[in-house]
Amino acid sequence: MDVDGLFALLEIESPEEFCFFEYYAELVESETDIPFEALRALFSAVDQRVLAELTEGYFEETLSGVPDDQTEFYTLLDSIGRNMTHLARRAENRGLDVFTEEFLRFRRWYTTDRAVRCENRDSRAQSETSVCEALTLSRLERLGEPDYFFDFGDCMEYPLTASVHLLDELADGGGTYFDENGDDARADEDEDGMYMLPDDYRRDGDVYL
């Protein structure tokens, strides 16, 4: 799929039309395989402010579907959202590659991986769904549909990134990243005064994971 195929998937004719929640949601939740190059081409043509607002709005809506008793999962999803919103605000040049990689990582975790265990509280029928499907079931509960027990335990290892450390900022010895709690944090300073990434992050090409 090239960028024209991505436009066809979203039913838009130009990147200027990619300014509504529905298109962003379709991009996240579609099970169609989307290559990095096509996604980057779309994001590169979207106003950076609009991209950040869409990202922030999508996560605000997504958080509303988290079951009330899943506080740890809510905290994780909120941290992912704040991290991605911060990346979107800096999605230019190398930062655009970083945001695109993180978007694809989130998309796999949220839409493709079937790691949430669901149990119908009445029939006791069990199934494994994606995070996206589980949150849809949770919303339907509030509309009178069957109640479920959700186990998000296998989703809790999502690797929050230090990728807001753009390479040019590392060269300057500065910058910030979101830590495991989604808060702004500063990397450790080494003996030469340079700021280094934590040991548990790895580098993949020009992207820190």
Overview of this protein structure:
The protein has about 210 residues and is of the alpha+beta class. It has helices at about 5-10, 20-30, 35-45, 50-65, 70-90, 95-110, 130-140, 165-170; strands at about 115-120, 125-130, 150, 175-180, 185, 190, 195, 205, 205-209. It has two domains: about 5-110 and about 160-209, no CATH class; about 115-155, no CATH class. A hairpin with a 5-residue loop joins strand 1 (about 115-120) and strand 2. Helix 3 crosses helix 6 and helix 4 packs antiparallel against helix 5 (about 70-90).
**Unreliable residue runs:** 162-209
- Helical content class: 40-55%
Structural class designation: alpha+beta
Strand content: 5-15%
Element pattern in H and E: HHHHHHEEHEHEEEEEE
Tell me, briefly, the overall form: elongated
Q: pLDDT average, as an integer?
A: 80
Largest sheet: 3 strands, antiparallel
Q: Biggest sheet: strands side by side, in what order?
A: 2-1-3
Discrete helix count:
8
Q: How many angstroms separate the termini?
A: 25 Å
